[in-house]
Specification:
heterodimer; A: alpha+beta; two-stranded parallel sheet; B: alpha+beta
């Protein structure tokens, strides 16, 4: 296989096209209060296309797939297996909800990786039809190193600019606006409670991963029946059990990924929808009934409340933990900076924030990057005082608020 | 652009002709194959058994040795190829169907799926010609036997090793618990373990890269924070 296959060339051209498009949006957009928002929407859509390219150029593409002429997964050529070898064949760790199964493993949700490496691959360096040359412990080290590096570099801007589920919620917000309905607002207390619940969700995920993987970890089942597939000669445990990724059973992103995958024909719906076995829940292949219920609930909530899921998302919480909490916030490179001299406490930043972050308004000045802030930069865009709010990367200003009121005249 | 000179063209023509000759040589030296059809019986009279393949194909060599059919260079019309395959049966007739596993998704590994139907009670033995490591170390293999000729259905249970099937030290799978049929899925990962001969930094290159990346970001963050002449201002806001 040539080093630079046509798939790689297509990816490079895609990235160049995205950059040119982004520059065009910045240059041609005359509405100063929508410039960053439009750019963000554009980047979100481009990211989804890029991330899910593995869907149509995926490893599951058989000879009969309509997408087969496009080649194999970019993971094989560009990022995944060939680049990372059997050491880490699941793709690059990304702090976004980019589901492991359908995206072709170009990038993979860090939550999936954490669960998987806690449970099935701990001492068994091989997963279901994927070989791992490393132990689970070492793979966890890779995941957390990548996660911490990404979080320190860009903070929760992954949530605001790249996460496919963030885009889905933003589109729901736009849909609500079409109906001319105003969004609902949560009280400060409720926002704080939701924010705290993220840590409980993470704790439950890790605990459940250990409990459900007890047979693989300790040699006995804490919950009988969770070590499924005991006939698997090589493993003697439930390596392909359907409960080995507890978060994925409830993740609202997963059904969306699978539905898109079915829509483009790289997965058969009958394969997805068949009922798998399990002692205490009913699950289908990849998509569970719990997944669908959570998706419906979250969709309704995200329609009413802006970016509802991002307030409780464990992925976002992990990114926040490694970027805006001590000690990580001391070395984080991307920061939202407020100039106390220029801020007039007009409160625009608080009102326009889709995450209802109040810290930007409440704090006096300096670094105002909050745990819930997705760095969407809506506050920077809407702040009417020049340089009152700035986004800094490695100490350099990347974007700053403008005096758009007087500029408009 | 200067037009190519005649010697260059001549050289190119020679190279093309040499390539063609090499290709022709390959074909000349290739072994002859013997075709078979789905109705071709491979009988084992001493064991009262007959083996059929469900679809047409061809083989390079086939011989009955010690009541076992030994095939080499098996190629089926569904493109499945087995370099080496031994099969024997006792007191039953079996019809074998091989399919490619995961459509080439498993790269660098020997993998396959055998499904077969069975008439009459009896014993079946299969050897897929996998590496000795396949048998020696369970880390190097996936081997699943289901007592149903259909694979990936909920009705077919995976059978534990020892419950209706055995794995011999030479890699032979002996099935004695099948009633109407069975399916055997195998993946030999031993090729992948060749990486263990690499030096430490290559065996753990991804880990080292990830940790280095994180360390670099932390160091840059620290340098920027404590850069001479710059006052940290993170706590100003509280």
């Amino acid at each position: 296989m040539s080093l630079l296959s046509y798939v790689d060339t297509a990816m490079i051209l895609f990235i160049i096209a995205v950059i040119i498009g982004a520059i065009a949006i910045l240059k041609l957009n005359s509405n100063k209060t929508r410039r960053i928002s439009n750019l963000r929407l554009y980047i979100q859509i481009a990211a989804v296309i890029g991330i899910f390219l593995g869907l149509i150029i995926g490893p599951f593409n058989g000879p009969d797939s309509v997408w087969r002429p496009l080649g194999v997964s970019p993971r094989s050529n560009l990022l995944g297996v060939d680049a990372l070898g059997s050491q880490f064949p699941d793709g690059i760790t990304a702090p976004i909800l980019a589901c492991y199964i359908p995206n072709g493993r170009t990038v993979t949700c860090a939550i999936w990786q954490i669960q998987s490496y806690i449970f099935p691959f701990w001492n068994y360096s091989r997963g279901y039809d994927v070989f791992y040359a490393l132990t689970g412990l070492e793979m966890l080290l890779i995941v957390f190193s990548s996660l911490i590096a990404a979080s320190l570099l860009l903070g929760r801007s992954f949530c605001g600019w790249l996460c496919p589920f963030g885009l889905y919620q933003d589109l729901l917000t736009r849909l609500r606006r079409l109906f001319k309905k105003r969004h609902l607002t949560l009280s400060k207390k409720k926002i704080d409670q939701l924010s705290q619940s993220r840590w409980i969700i993470i704790a439950v995920i890790i605990l459940a991963s250990v409990v459900l993987g007890s047979y693989a970890l300790f040699g006995f089942e804490i919950i009988p029946g969770t070590a499924l597939d005991t006939g698997h000669d090589a493993l003697h445990s439930g390596i392909v059990s359907y409960v080995n990724e507890p978060y994925c059973l409830v993740c609202p992103e997963r059904p969306l990924c699978i539905l898109v995958q079915c829509a483009v024909g790289s997965m058969e719906w009958s394969y997805v929808s068949q009922i798998a076995y399990g002692p205490f829940y009913i699950a289908g292949w990849y998509v569970t009934s719990i997944n669908l219920a959570v998706l419906i609930a979250v969709s309704l909530l995200a329609f009413a409340y802006r970016r509802f899921w991002c307030r409780i998302c464990p992925m976002g919480a992990l990114t926040a933990l490694f970027s805006s909490h001590r000690p990580f916030n001391r070395v984080a490179l991307t920061k939202l900076d407020k100039d106390r001299e220029k801020c007039t406490k007009c409160g625009v930043c608080k009102r326009v924030c889709p995450m209802d972050v109040s810290e930007v308004y409440e704090r006096k000045g300096g670094d105002v990057t909050a745990s819930n802030c997705t760095l969407c930069l809506r506050c920077v865009e809407m702040c009417p005082y020049k340089d009152a709010l700035k986004v800094k990367f490695a100490g350099k200003t990347v974007a700053a608020s403008k005096d758009w009121l007087s500029e408009k005249g | 652009m200067k037009p190519p000179r005649p010697p260059i063209i001549l050289t190119l023509v020679c190279l093309v002709l040499m390539g063609g000759a090499c290709q022709a040589g390959v074909y000349v030296s290739a072994q002859t194959t013997t075709p078979f059809t789905a109705s071709t019986p491979f009988s084992i009279p001493a064991c009262n058994a007959t083996i059929y393949f469900a679809i047409d194909g061809s083989y390079s060599q086939a011989a009955l040795e010690n009541d076992t059919w030994v095939f080499s260079g098996l190629v089926f019309i569904n493109s499945v190829t087995l370099n080496s395959f031994n099969v024997s049966a006792q007191d039953c007739n079996i019809t074998l169907y091989f399919s490619e596993l995961f459509r080439g998704y498993l790269r660098g590994q020997e993998a396959g799926l055998l499904q077969y139907n069975l008439t009459g009670p009896g014993i079946q033995r299969f050897n897929f010609g996998l590496s000795p490591s396949f048998t020696a170390n369970p880390r190097y293999r996936d081997l699943m036997v289901r007592f149903s000729s259909e694979f990936f259905t909920n009705s077919s249970e995976v059978a534990r090793l020892g419950e209706g099937w055995q794995l011999a030290s030479d890699g032979t799978v002996t099935v004695d618990g099948a009633v109407t049929g069975a399916s055997i899925m195998y993946v030999d990962y031993s090729n992948m373990y060749k990486e263990t001969s690499l030096p430490f930094y290559l065996q753990h290159s991804v880990t080292l890269t990830a940790v280095s990346l994180m360390s670099a970001v932390v160091v840059i963050g620290l340098v920027l924070r404590f850069k001479p002449g710059k006052k940290p201002r993170a706590e100003e806001s509280r």
